[in-house]
Amino acid sequence: MPVHRSGVTRLHVYTAVAAVLLGLFSLPRTAVADEPAPGAPPRGSAHMGMGVAVHDGRGGLPVRRSTRTEGVDVSSHQGDVAWSTLWDSGVRWAYVKATEGTYYTNPYHPQQYDGSYDVGMIRGAYHFATPDTASGAAQADHFVDRGGAWSADGRTLPGALDIEWNPYGDACYGKSQGAMVNWIRDFLDQYRARTGRDAVIYTATTWWRQCTGDYGGFASAHPLWIARYASTVGELPAGWDSYTMWQYTSTGPVVGDHNRFNGTLGRLRSLALG
Question: Under the phi-then-psi rule, with left for phi > 0, alpha for psi from -120 to 50, and beta for the rest, what region is 214?
Fold first, then answer.
């Protein structure tokens, strides 16, 4: 039976379209990692605890205790912060978002980081990790070079790695539990090599279990900053038998997320000194 020319042409077109679609579906996930999922916030806008209320829920506020020291964490969402107001409310330490991935630097970092220091607070910087966009070492370098370094002045805390639910897509950034552990180790090792300090790890127990398999190998060297919006801390990730910091609410009476350091102001100064 003769084949019409128009039929051959359509066949070639369908074959070409199928090849393009097949190529798109076979791309590795990292090739499109820079594009947030539909409905996700713009990259750079992430901050500590974005997924905590969604995944862990909210509970009552903890009882105040004299052996815990009040702190806050802030990002570009807070803009220029009235640090004297926070100081007068009893806040004595602060962490400021410095960077995210290798593509973002907080434009308010100077006012927030220096302003907290100027009113007398002990301050530190944190990095929002995006393990699907660059290696741990590359992100550690980006962090240290743009506000995450440490100094032995007694009022600068070691940098914090904010590793939690991905606000832009897959909760575990498309990584297996083993690959996630390796990524975190890569960041921590590079931060240590660059600064001489072990970084603080900020996370939530439920995310840590889901995305690292409840890995316990970092607990001996890295202070734990646990995120849980409830009246108690609850169960901690594997390896840690106590927490160093606790983010207990994102709706505090004054600007920023509110936290408790698990100890006196003197112990907080000791952590800053190393």
Answer: left
The CATH number that applies at residue 152 is 3.20.20.80
Return the closest-CA partner of residue 268 out of 62, 93, 73.
93
Distance of CA 178 to the CA centre of its chain: 19
Q: Is 164 a catalytic residue?
A: yes
User: For residue 88, what pLDDT is reported?
Assistant: 96
Residue 250 lies in a domain: yes
Contacts of 77 (CB under 8 A, 6+ apart): 45, 47
Catalytic residue, chosen from 56, 70, 73, 198, is 73
- The values of phi and psi at residue 200, to 5°, are -75, 145
Angle formed at CA 194 by CA 138 and CA 239, multiple of 5 degrees: 85
pTM of the entire structure?
0.80
Identify whether 14 is part of a domain.
no
Q: Is 162 a catalytic residue?
A: yes
Q: Is the pLDDT of residue 144 over 80?
A: yes
Residue 126 lies in a domain: yes
Domain that holds residue 205: 52-273
Whether the Cβ atoms of residue 69 and residue 8 lie closer than 8 Å to each other: no
Q: Is residue 141 annotated as part of the catalytic site, yes or no?
A: no
Give per-residue pLDDT as tens, 79-91.
Answer: 999 999 999 999 9
- Indicate the number of domains in the chain: 1
Neighbours of 25 (CB within 10 A): 7
